[in-house]
Amino acid sequence: MSRVEKNNEIMISIRNVYKSFGQNAVLKGISLDVAKGDVVALIGGNGAGKSTLMKIIMGIYQPDDGEIFIKGEKVNLNKPSAALAQGIYLVPQEPMLFPNMTVEENILIGFSEKRSILHNRLVELIVQLGWNLKLDRKADSLSIAEQQLVEILRGLLRESRILILDEPTSALTFNEIESLFKLVTDLSSKGISIFYITHRLTEVFDIATHVAIMRDGLFTLKGLVSEFTKEMLIKGLLPPNAKSTSSTAGNVCKQIDHSKTRPVLEVKKYSGYGFSNINLNVYPGEIVGMAGVVGAGRTEFATTIFGMDEVKSGQVILNGEDITSLKTTEVLDKGLNYVPEDRFLNGIFKISDITSNTSSAIVRTSSNFLLNRKKEKEVTDEYIKDFRIKATGQDQILGSLSGGNQQKVVIARALSTAPKLVILDEPTRGIDAGARGDVYTIINQLKESGVAILLISSDLEEIVELSDRAVTMFQGKLTNSFDRAHINLDNLMAASFGVYEEEKAICEKQ
After folding, report:
1. Is the entire prediction scored with pTM above 0.90?
2. Which structural domains are found in the chain, ordered by start?
3. E-strand spans in 23-120?
């Protein structure tokens, strides 16, 4: 009798959970039962609602509606301590240990019981698990895998019966992944229920007993892993009206002929924090879409090119000039600009007016000590008209504009430097359909004017609609490239989750 069959006691039951942030409905009536010893692989694209659901289970967020039951009893998880008291523990993707403290000190911090009693319990627990982890080691000497063991021990010592593992293999080696899988199997056999959040579809079949696919705040598929194939999981991740086009005939490797055109951007064996060995060309008047799930390394790649992060190795050529390791101000001068993923953190000055935000990138290039306010107003007025920015005037405070109009100002600022290449990182995130259409028009106008565009987007439909060519990143590497004829939701989704068929795949080799 399998583990799934003999352990049918329901540990946690989630019933009709809803959660919205303002007008954005994130969870739309989520229901799920997890039995004792179940390993539930939770999968979903960016923004599907996975993190919000887990934060509700951990008591970090409160649901707008719905109920949660632990072993059949309704519970109120109104704060993290309430979740811990119910035996729920989250092992974060990035372990949070104090580096100068020992393993034992990191595990026992926060307990009120006698140290000697806790020490004996901890030693007994490690023996039961069969682990070889020295308690007197400093945390800064541990590998990522060992740090995750420490986080798991924190949870088990609290007698947690429900563990949440968030992307546990994202930073592990092959041997460390094997060790983690053995651990998960052991914990499951001891009756511990596990939520296993992952972007790697192959792991679902390696380690999980059940799978649940989330899309747009709902479960589209859930059940025993044995009932599904990879193709079925991918279909569950796609929008309901998406046409299946994975069997498209033709030569996937066929590309547009750029033999007579010099690329604006040439990236050669480029490595930095979160990505490695990237080779990519972008040509004048071309939109190259870059797809991938959160943590794939896309934004890190962009910010490193823009001079915001350290380069480990490789080379970046812009218009024939080597810009590798240049500072951001120097990269701007060479003709590259970047519209950041998080406009609130990196893109706007919310308490300044539209003029100041639009012209801030070109003000520094002025040779005059006093700012040319007339020139600033002329530039701003031009972009307000061209981009249809809805505002009472140039002096309106940017923070008072709608999200879509704020995004237009951010793009206007990037274009005010007359770049040869612009990197757009999630250019339509958080804006309404009308503003999205306006941004698409702006992007296409840039293309027609000869500007090269690298479009980073988690919205695969956006990649399909706008891109002349598309590439995908998975686990920090550029894995696949598709010409216009083969840019479709099926191909991009499969490649983003690392399961695109090898015989159809091509890697960027320009």
Report:
1. no
2. 3-237 (3.40.50.300), 255-335+419-510 (3.40.50.300), 348-417 (no CATH)
3. 24-35, 39-44, 65-70, 73-75, 88-91
